[in-house]
Amino acid sequence: MSEMSKIVRTITSIAFPFAMIYGLYVIAHGHLTPGGGFQGGAIVASACVMILVAFGSKWTLDKIKEKRLSVFESIGAVAFIGLAFLGLIFGTVFFNNFLVGNEYLFGVIPTTGVANINTAGILPLMNFAVGLKVIAGLFAIVLVMAYATTNYKEGKK
Amino acid sequence: MSKRNLAAAASLSIIAVIFLFSALLMHSFGVPDESEMDQYVIDNTQAETGANNGVTSVVFDYRGFDTLGEATVLFTAVAGVIMIFRRRKE
Fold it and tell me: Cβ of A31 and B75 within 8 Å?
């Protein structure tokens, strides 16, 4: 995948931070507003794919390799399952929400209509884990496919 | 008409009757059956999970195993795509 024209690259550079911030907002507020780890991760991965399409796979592969992305994806998966097992250790059962009820970390029980981000126990942490997993996973898929096409074209030449 | 066609017609008509009955017995659109579980989630999600967003509390807490399966599906998909499109060593 070769890079596109200068107009497209400039517009992408302008639009990229907004898409990134929106996706990270959706992930961080997963327990308050519609959305969550999967949806926000898909938005952030789409922003990264926009960069890949505009700037070309060679430029993007100079910046980040898919091996690093798959490491991040594994970190997300291990964090997700680890949080579930922490529920088994500190609480009662697998996937137990053991952080609800303490006053310090995500433990406040909210009243209706009040959007307090310090609530919901392990749900925000799980949203972060799943979001990391989805960002890295989806971007790794597209990056690997883009690299395969470039490699193919270069081999043909 | 051969025996084969007769059998096909009979089985098709039986299936059509079954579908017709199930279509007539469906409850009307937009009026779901009341169940104990959704009322329980609506009543207790804020006190039990502390989340203002009921959907997230169902996805990550009440039905966490479902999300674990989804994450596994995503992991398998990524692993498969990376395996197919991996870089060859020259």
Answer: no
